[in-house]
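User: I'm putting together notes for a lab meeting next week and I want to include a structural view of one of the chains we've been expressing. I don't have a solved structure, so I'd like a prediction I can at least talk through. The sequence is below, exactly as it appears in our construct file.
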Amino acid sequence: MKKNAIITIDGWSACGKSTLAKQLAKELGFVYIDSGAMYRAITLYFLRNHIDWTDPKEVEEALKNIKIEFHFNEKSQQSEVFLNDENVEWLIRDLVIAEKVSDVAAIREVRAFAVHQQQLMGKKKRIVMDGRDIGTTVFPHAEVKIFMTADNGTRVERRFKELFEKNPNISLEEVKANLEMRDYIDSNREVSPLRKAEDAILLDNTNLTMEEQLEFALKLVK
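Assistant: Thanks for the context. Below is the predicted structure for the 222-residue chain, given as structure tokens.
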């Protein structure tokens, strides 16, 4: 494998894309970039500042005031997202953000802004980036492309466990409805819809452990 490769991991919500991307980056000594966190951070900014995202001019003006960076936290050994110099890693994982992020991510101006930022981050290569259009739009010539999937029941269970830790009042029905809505918007949006790149390798991790999926991905990369 080239030492300066780009690895893309795309797929549906709650398939464990970020978990695998973090594992791979750590094993290979690459930088991990969570593209979904970028869209969540933009959504947080829009909500906080009461931006009408149905108005393209207002969106374009708002994007001029947004700076997104990733910093490695030595203590947690995780990459964390900063919005205008504020660590928003935990704030963006809220269900309120999850309910709006697919709408915001479907906006042409928002995607153009995020894709440009992502491509700048990838100039030095040696990165693992996960999302929904990384292997198709952001890095169509990436050396390694993985497309992740899992059955719906498994995905709902995983997302519920993740959100329940932060919000014990959440219900399984809310999580299921949110995932179904995001799947529909992600795969039907006009700009860069979620789809498997022709040269991406499919990874169904419904019945795989985290160790098994990492082993699969490492074999593919090497």
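A couple of points you could mention at the meeting. The beta strands are 6-11, 31-34, 68-73, 78-83, 86-87, 127-131, 144-149, 201-204. The chain has nine helices and eight strands.

User: Perfect, that's what I needed.
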